[in-house]
Amino acid sequence: MSWTDDRVEVLKKMWGEGKSASQIAKELGGVTRNAVIGKVHRLGLSNRSGGASPAKAATAAPKAKPAAKPKAPEKPKAAAPAPESKPAAPVHKPIGRPKLIVTAGQPLPPQPSANEISPEALASVREVEKKAKRLSVMELTERTCKWPVGDPATEDFWFCGLPSQAGKPYCEAHVGVAFQPMSARRDRRR
DNA sequence: CCCTGATTCGC
DNA sequence: GCGAATCAGG
């Protein structure tokens, strides 16, 4: 496959719409997301701006020193908020309501401070339990939060089931309370 | 270990 | 110019 005029057009369009490189690649077919990204860069529209920014990134970067880490300029500020939305939530229907869940009403974003289980974390967990998908054991997959809720000895037991990022057994909120210690974790060599 | 884009470099 | 391999991050 080659970058014909109309294929480039599709690329430009979709990239402008904020589609991911893999999505574009899938749409076009015959190319990988790497190809798409490569093309995007060669076209000089790596910066997802319709043309506002000159994006004249002085890529005069010498390829002699691998030590150089100029880092991408990153998006400064997009006036157009990404309409991107993943309403993949099929809306669950509570078949059996387990008990009453009292809500404090104060979400309070996690605030790293104490190394103990912070009240914020606890609040966060309870908050999450409200939104939990309440999966049974068999409904759990590799990418669902396996945080148990309730008493296994009763019917009042289910797993969180919210999407876990990857590798981790829990969703973000539960990871937060599951792993308190450890903070140094930098660099990862292959 | 799913995904994202960014960069390099042989072709 | 192309894009796989790699890198760096979420």
Task: Please give the structural blueprint.
Blueprint: H1 5-16, H2 21-28, H3 33-43, H4 119-131, E1 148-150, E2 157-159, H5 172-178
Antiparallel strand pairs: 1-2
Helix pairs in contact: 1-2, 2-3, 4-5
The chain binds a DNA duplex (11 and 10 nucleotides) through helix 3.
Distance between the termini: 32 Å
Shape: elongated
Beta-strand portion reads under 5%
Q: Domain count, please report it.
A: 2
Low-confidence parts: 51-101, 104-115, 182-190
Order of helices and strands: HHHHEEH
Helix content: 25-40%
A few lines on this structure:
It comes from Litoreibacter albidus. The chain is mostly helical. Helices cover 27% and strands 3% of the residues.
Describe this structure in words.
By secondary structure, the chain is mainly α. It folds into 2 domains: 5-89, no CATH class; 114-189, no CATH class. It has helices at residues 5-16, 21-28, 33-43, 119-131, 172-178; strands spanning 148-150, 157-159. A two-stranded antiparallel ribbon has the order 1-2. Helix 1 (5-16) packs antiparallel against helix 2, helix 2 packs across helix 3 and helix 4 (119-131) runs antiparallel to helix 5. The chain is elongated. The protein starts with a helix and ends in a 12-residue tail after the last helix. The model is unreliable at 51-101, 104-115 and 182-190 (pLDDT under 50). The structure holds a DNA duplex (11 and 10 nucleotides).
